[in-house]
Amino acid sequence: MAKTALRERPAYRCAECGWHAAKWVGRCGECQAWGTVEDTAAPVVRTTSAGPVSAAAQPIGSVDMATSQTRPSGVGELDRVLGGGLVPGAVVLLAGEPGVGKSTLLLDVAARFCAGGKALYVTGEESAAQVRLRAERIGAVRDGLYLAAETDLAAVLGHVDEVCPDLLVVDSVQTIASAQVDGAPGNVSQVREVAAALIRVAKERGIAVVLVGHVTKDGSIAGPRVLEHIVDVVLHFEGDRQSRLRMVRGVKNRYGPSDEVGCFELSEAGIVGLPDPSGLFLSRRDEAVPGTCVTVTVEGRRPLVAELQALVAMSPLANPRRTTSGLESSRVAMVLAVLERRADVRLHDRDIYAATVGGVRLVEPATDLALALTVASAAKDHALAPGLIAIGEVGLAGEIRPVTGVASRLAEAARLGFTTALVPPDPGAVPEGMTVVEVGDIRRALHVAWRAADVIPLTRRS
Question: N or C: which end of the chain has fewer CB atoms below 10 A?
Fold first, then answer.
C-alpha cells in the first residue's frame, strides 16, 4: 500500500527561547534572534487502501485489437501522417497559426469521413452559417455531417448524446468553457477540464475526436503542456501565408510514426493533398542559369526534391547583406565561411541572397552541399551541369560528411529525370541510369560541378 506523508498544521518554534509562531519568520519575535525559527510539526502518515478495479487484468495476448483498427479519414495525406487513419477512441490535437487552413482541412475530413458514419463538427469561433458557406465552397455538404455552434461544454456533450457521432471535431478547444470551472475560456483550468471531459467521452464511446488548438507567437501550442501529454496524437499544421504549400507534421503519435509529413496545396476550392509535391519546389526553365542547384531533402520519411537559388552581387556597404528565405541564416553563414576559407570563393565584400523555390523550408544538413554549389555558381557566374543534384553535409574543414537515406534520395531524383548526383563517399545502392560521383571535400565538388559534362562518364558510376 502506498504511504503519503502529510502535515496537519504548520508549527514553528524558536530554538533559543521557545517562542511559537503560525508561519515561518526569519527573526524570532521574542528574543529577536535571527535564523532560529524551525518547523516542528510532526508529519502524519496516512495510507491508501486497495479499491475495486474497473476491469480485470488479462494476458496481453488475449486483448482484443478489433476496437483499435484504423479507419481511413478520406484524405490520403492526413492518413499517411496518422499511420493509416483515425482510431476509434483516439484524440487528435491539430495546432497551427491563424489562417493557415485548419478549419478548412477538418471540415473536408469530416465530410469525407461521414460517408461511412456520422460526423459532428462543433465550432466555437464561427456561426453555423459561416461554416455552411465554407462547406459550400469546398463541396463538403453531406447528409451525415452535423454542425453545431456552441461554446459551453455541457451543450457540446449534449450534442454528442443526441447525434452519437463516429467523429467529433471541436474547433477549437480554447473557445469551449465549462460552467463548473472558474475562469474565462482558454485559461489553463478551462482547457484542462474541457480536454479531460472530451477525452473521457472518446474513450467510453469509441469516438474519434479531433481538437483544434491555438498556438502562441513562438509557434508552441497554447494552454497547459499537459494537454499534449493526455491526447493520443499531436499534429502541427504549417505553412507560409504567401505560399500555397501546407504541411501537416506529426509530433506525437501513439498509433503510428511520429516523424511523418503530409503535403497539401491551398487553392480556391479548399485544401488538396499532394501525393507527389516535388514539382512545387522546382522552377521551370529551358536553359541552365547560374546560382541554382537541386537537392533532395527528407521530410519525415518522404524524400522531396527542392531547388535552391542564390544571387551574389558587389556590395557598396561596409557590412554586406546576407538575406535568406526558407533557409537557416546561421547555417547559411557557416557554409559561406567554409566556401571562402576552404574553396577560395570571394564573398566577404558581396551581398548574398539565398532562397528556396516554392516556399519549402530546408533545415536539414544534407542540403549544405547544394547550398555551397548554388552560392559558388552565383559568385562565379557559371551555371552548373544540367540534370545535376547535390546531397551532403559540409563540415568546417571543408569535408563532405555522410547523411542518412542517400539511396532513397537518389531513387526520388532518378524518378524525376535527374542523371547526375554529387554525394558523400559510400552512398550505397545507385539507381540504374544515374551517374553518382563521390566527393570528399568542397573543392572536389566544385571541380566536378563546373566540368561535369567532360569529367563525369554518363554511362557508369564514378
Answer: N
- Which residues does 285 contact at the CB level (< 8 Å), separation at least 6? none
Residue 94, SS3 per DSSP: strand
Kindly state the average pLDDT of the residues 219-236.
88
pLDDT tens-digit map of 380-415: 998 888 889 999 999 999 999 999 999 999 999 999
CB-based contacts of 279: which residues, under 8 Å, 6+ apart? none
Note whether 248 and 237 are within 8 A (CB).
yes
Would you state the cell numbers that stand for residue 410, as one nine-digit string? 537518389
Write down the domain spans for the chain.
Answer: 3-45, 69-275, 280-455
Q: Residue 447 belongs to what H/E stretch? A: helix 442-450
- Which residues does 197 contact at the CB level (< 8 Å), separation at least 6? 153, 157, 178
Residue 112 CA, chain-centre distance (Å), reads 24
Looking at the chain, the number of H-run helices and the number of E-run strands are 11, 23
Superfamily of domain 69-275: P-loop containing nucleotide triphosphate hydrolases (3.40.50.300)
**Burial class for 51, CB neighbours closer than 10 Å (0-12, 13-18, 19+):** exposed
- CATH of range 280-455; options 3.40.50.620, 3.30.230.10, 2.60.40.2250, 3.40.470.10: 3.30.230.10
Task: For residue 77, give the C-alpha cell.
Answer: 495525406
Furthest C-alpha separation in the chain: 97
- Sequence-ordered alpha helix ranges (H) in 267-402: 329-342, 368-380
Interacting residues of 236 by C-beta distance below 8 A, sequence separation 6+: 95, 96, 248, 249, 251
* Assigned C-alpha cell, 239: 505553412
Q: Which of 92, 66, 85, 63 is nearest to 256 (CA)?
A: 85
Q: What is the per-residue pLDDT across 337-363, written as a single tens digit (0 to 9) for each?
A: 999 999 999 999 999 999 999 878 899
Angle at which helices 442-450 and 368-380 cross, to 10°: 60
Provide the terminal-to-terminal Cα distance of the chain, rounded to the nearest Å.
Answer: 69
Q: Helices 128-138 and 102-113: crossing angle, nearest 10°?
A: 70
One fold for both 69-275 and 280-455? no
Residue 16 and residue 28 in contact, taking contact as beta carbons nearer than 8 Å: yes
